[in-house]
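User: Second chain of the day. Same drill as before.
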Amino acid sequence: QVELVESGGGLVQAGGSLRLSCAASGRTSFRVFAMGWFRQAPGKEREFVAGIGLVSGVIFYETSVKGRFTISKDNAQKTVHLQMDMLKPEDTAVYYCAADRDVPALRTGDTNYWGQGTQVTVSS
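Assistant: Same format as last time:
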């Protein structure tokens, strides 16, 4: 079993910042080599936001967040962070942490490893 526990999120005004964190635990040694974030806004499908390879360091961002969001990792803690700056109302969504064997696989969203989700609300 792999467990992903998220923290952070909340309510912020447009232009503000928030930081999300996700810690992985359990049987991660042979299963988790990439972690990242998806989001789902009301009435929309879940979409990939950012991902990072825990060993490779490879990083991918969804186009709309490039230059505003920064993903980072702490391998010792098996934790990833998502620093979100210059937030916009359209960033409002439930943000989910996810993990997979590598970033390309992670980006498909076809993984069994998900966090419980944390709400991010950006007011205009």
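The helical segments are 103-108.

User: Great, on to the next one.
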